[in-house]
Amino acid sequence: MGINSESDTEANLQIGPTDQGMVRIFVESQGTEIPMDFSPEEADEIAQEISAAAQRARGKTS
């Protein structure tokens, strides 16, 4: 499965700070839980990548 492959799979997504000063992206789907912890700096980079992808999806350049 790639970035352009459609899927009917549903997932829950939670994003928030941990008590250890990290940013956690938590994905749960069909009984599988995937916690991913990032430093605040890494989280900022991820946020920038998401924003850039959203702009490209709208047909804009970054």
Question: Which sequence of strands runs across the widest sheet?
Answer: 1-2-3
Q: What is the domain tally? A: 1
The topology string of helices and strands comes to: EEEH
**Can you tell me the residue ranges where pLDDT is under 50 for at least 5 consecutive residues?**
none
Architecture blueprint of SSEs:
Blueprint: E1 12-17, E2 23-29, E3 32-38, H1 40-57
Antiparallel strand pairs: 1-2, 2-3
Keywords:
62 residues, alpha+beta, three-stranded antiparallel sheet
Structural summary, described in words:
The chain is of the alpha+beta class and 62 residues long. It has one domain (12-57). It is 29% helix and 32% strand. The chain is built from one helix and three strands; from the N terminus they run βββα. The chain has one helix at 40-57, and strands spanning 12-17, 23-29, 32-38. It has a three-stranded antiparallel sheet. It starts with 11 loop residues before the first strand and ends in a 5-residue tail after the last helix. The model has no long low-confidence stretch (mean pLDDT 93).
